[in-house]
From TrEMBL:
One of its GO terms (biological process) is ciliary basal body organization. One of its GO terms (cellular component) is centrosome. Coiled coil: none annotated. This is Rotatin. It comes from Iconisemion striatum. PANTHER family: ROTATIN. InterPro entries: Rotatin.
Length: 207
């Protein structure tokens, strides 16, 4: 397949979404983006171009397009990281979310998706992040490391959601937990120390 040509056609289709309103194209695009990031040695050019299109969909000005994008992305994440994959122990299953494990994508979802005025968008954004943050058992070691590396620049943003009540807030608190700093987990000790210090300035007394 000529992937660059397909990405160009996808770009044109995305630009035309406000006019033709054929939302099923979004699902096909997301599955294509996922596929192009699965390989051990993917094409940097294809990765870059597909990521541009994915970010365009995530930030699309049309509410129906943005909603469809977030919900289709969440569905894919569930398919790849859902608990139903655990008995099969298929390392390839988590490869489907590799296209999400990049700081630009996580920044878009954390900064704008979580704050979106549409409930379907901000709820899907929260669930996507929760699946990733809780996905250690479902990911390979390399995928988990890649996720955490992409997460470092986004931690200060996510810490704005730290709480002892909400699921996402609890996961964010665990990121900043210094108790397991000597373990093999990530972020590394310096990143965790910075995260813990930032929490000292929170206005929430229970954090």
């Amino acid at each position: 397949k000529n992937w660059l040509e397909l990405l160009e056609l996808a770009d044109q289709a995305i630009d035309g979404l406000p006019f033709h309103k054929h939302l099923p194209i979004i699902r096909e695009c997301i599955h294509m983006f996922s596929y192009l990031w699965k390989f051990d040695q993917p094409s940097p050019l294809l990765q870059t171009e597909s990521q541009k299109l994915f970010l365009k969909l995530l930030s699309h000005p049309s509410p129906p397009v943005k909603t469809e994008t977030y919900q289709r992305t969440l569905n894919l994440v569930k398919d790849c990281l859902g608990i139903h994959n655990l008995p099969r122990q298929e390392p390839a299953a988590c490869a489907g979310v590799h296209f999400l494990l990049h700081h630009r994508v996580l920044y878009e979802i954390s900064t704008f998706g979580l704050q979106d005025s549409a409930e379907k968008v901000n709820t899907a954004a929260k669930d996507i992040l929760l699946f990733l943050l809780k996905g250690r058992l479902m990911m390979t070691a390399s995928a988990w490391d890649r996720f955490n590396e992409a997460l470092y620049p986004v931690i200060p943003i996510l810490q704005g959601y730290a709480s002892t009540e909400e699921s996402l807030g609890k996961c964010v608190l665990l990121i900043s937990d210094m108790s397991d700093v000597a373990g093999d987990g990530v972020p590394p000790s310096t990143a965790k120390l910075k995260a813990a210090l930032r929490l000292l300035f929170t206005k929430q007394p229970n954090v």
